[in-house]
Amino acid sequence: MKLCLRNSLSRFRHDSQGSYSVEAILMLPMLAWAILAMYSYFDGLRLANVNVKAAHTISDILSRETDEVNDAYINGAENLFGFLVNRGYQKSLRISVFRFDGTDNQFDLMWSEGRGTVSGYTQATAGNAIDRLPVTADGDTVITVETWMDYRSAFVMGLTDTTLYNFLVTSPRFAPQLLWEGQAAANT
Fold it and tell me: How far apart are CA 83 and CA 180, in angstroms?
């Protein structure tokens, strides 16, 4: 009896029929998880890249502007941002212009406009942006474009809801500064 049981166990241990089915059943959930996780991460990285490119496009358009801008222009920039990102997520945009005063060795806020859930800077609230601005020459102006977009992952695979944020600084190209409608040019 003992020998019969030992022989049966030995045959069972060496028998490999049906092992592929068992392995497939064990591996299928992990394979499905890996595919969904890769899709989620790729989608998040792709959307972050699209968001950066859209912010650079808006920044470049503003840097080439030689005429004064107004509310309609900023609304158009917000619409362009939404078109370029092409997602239904909550989006916000803030455009600001700063001028460096070499006498005081600091940036002064010329104007700022926000759309979406953010508002434009005031002199009191501009400190966050001013701390991030690069060194420039006395009298130079810089244009900052800030974008926000709430991102929700298609599948919950280690990614949490996040806000994609960009802060870009650009110098005006064809005019000494980007003026708001009715604003007089600053003396340089």
Answer: 24
pLDDT in tens, the chain (188 residues): 777 778 777 777 776 666 777 788 888 988 888 888 888 888 888 999 999 999 999 999 999 999 999 999 999 999 999 999 988 888 999 999 999 998 888 999 999 999 999 999 998 898 888 989 998 999 899 999 999 999 888 776 666 788 899 999 999 998 888 989 877 666 54
Residue pair 140/171 in contact (Cβ under 8 Å)? The answer is yes
Identify the burial level of 62 via C-beta atoms within 10 angstroms of its C-beta, where 0-12 means exposed, 13-18 middle and 19 or more buried.
buried
Can you tell me the distance from the alpha carbon of 71 to that of 57, in angstroms, rounded to the nearest whole number?
Answer: 19
- For the chain, count helices (H), then strands (E): 4, 4
Beta bridge partners of 148: 92, 165
Residue 153 DSSP one-character state: -
- The alpha carbon dihedral of 113, 62, 76, 54 has a sign of negative
